[in-house]
Fold Chaperone protein HtpG.
Amino acid sequence: MQEKGNISIHTENIFPVIKKFLYSDNEIFLRELVSNAVDASQKVKRLSALGQFQGEVGDLVVDVKFDPEAKTITISDKGIGMTAEEVKKYINQIAFSGATEFMEKFKEANDANEIIGRFGLGFYSAFMVADTVEIQTLSFQEGASPAKWVCDGSTSYEISEGSRTERGTDVILHVNEESLEFLNKARLGEILDKYGKFLPVPIRFGTVTENVEDGQDEEGKPAYKSVEVDHFINNTNPAWTKSPTELSDADYIAFYKELYPYAQDEPLFWIHLNVDYPFNLTGILYFPKIKNELEVQRNKIKLYSRQVFITDEVKDIVPEFLMLLHGVIDSPDIPLNVSRSFLQADSNVKKINNYITKKVADKLSEIFKTDRKGFEEKWNDIGLFIKYGILSDEKFAEKANDFVLLTNTTKESATFTEYYDKVKDLQVDKDGNVIYLYTQDVDQQDSFINSAKAKGYDVLTLDGPLDTHFTSYIEQKGGEKVQLKRVDADVIDKLIQKDQVVELALSEEESKQASTIFEKAIARTDMKVEIDALAEDELPVSVTIDEFMRRMKDMAKTNGGMNFYGSLPDNYKVSVNGNHPLVKRILAATEEEAAQLAKQAFDLALLSRGLLTGADLTAFVKRSVSLI
């Protein structure tokens, strides 16, 4: 048997889904209804500009009011209004969007896209908090009659003659028992501030008390009185909607404080986004002071659509490393689901992502080229951000390689190319490898740093949370045959091995004897003793850890992976300088004195690395006193 037909959808089944489960948060009802009121207001302005409305546009304020006793919330506008027929068309037909029809009708008008609503479902979010919803409306059309629409949340409704005498619409919510929290000034104000702070039409929410000047007092000083004034919750012309030429640095900083009133520091600099092809995007991204802490706060960049707040989850639009920035992005071309709460996959999202990455890289490059000194002064704040971008975004890295800085222990900065040219002649080993020495702790590795400097070598400071991974990147991109070695990974002559060989002053028998003395004095399985031929003025004993093993263990700590290396115990090499006078003194001493001197030299090496603590440190101090 073969049969074709149409699937039947019953409104009584789908309606509860729309009003209860379409939106992830019931506070969204206020955003949707206020946005609809703004749409209606925008339409009147558009029709007036096109000459299709001859009356006075007037004051297009949207009012939000509530009455705890009557248990009502009312959203009123002075917009386009509706006739009874339009109410039937736009309200009764779920998902028939009046905004979509309006944009299609006037699609050649440049700013028709200012209209927010597209799906025609936003109105029904009212039933998430209301048992009954009432509409009182009067169309802008000449001779129109007011209309009233009432629905109790079922599929039944009633249309009758309305009571409104001025153009516009009132949406009245009779709040249900589960949603009485919204009959509260603070709660409604919080929602309006979150979603409507930058709507393009003034939103009035009650009044506030202000002190205004009222003549002078008896001493001739200004006198003040308290008055109630209208409370407007939004800035209708936020900075990102303006041209950069209209804004001063003070304007950008003031807007930053408007976005983040509790921010303690001013932003370092900012990027004003403004593009209308191949997608429409505006916004301002601020570079905050990050310092040396990797704190990705995902709620600092806010996404808007035509000045309506959508979400602060922008990970698909903004690359991961740009989550460190603050600011605003506004685009009508970012696809949203029907509840305007979540982003949908779309080619525009990828294009916008790439565009923002390019703009950030271009801005940093511009600052580096035009103000190198200022760029270096900001490096402590922006270095982490740039390294994060390099490690996570290949396209950003291509540009950033020209302005990422390497800083040495004397606070001098250089680009990859500059640093390579600086050390390539002196810090080259016998195999032609250019060795970059670095420290992750200037204080703990001080003795190793001084040994390197005594040879004329330069030491980089790589002590940030990402530098464990960044060292590998430098080896790949820093220059030809570059290798990075932490300055305490071995004695300096082995870190950069030259052709010339230092002869060991000890005989083979003396070397074995010295090794045995130190092994017994140390008595630790994680310490391997080696007798090395070093210059007499080098340290008598150094405790080092293999570069490869240490780097693998550091990576295991930072990314939670590489468990094999992370689970291995620390193993150190104890390098005994066979040419140091102390070793000859130890060989000539009695067994007891030799053991004591060897232990003291070893503990001193541990102390220089910050590895001597607790009871071992106390014992070291006591031995030091007894040896004096």
The first strand starts at residue 62 and ends at 67. DSSP finds 20 helices and 21 strands in the chain.
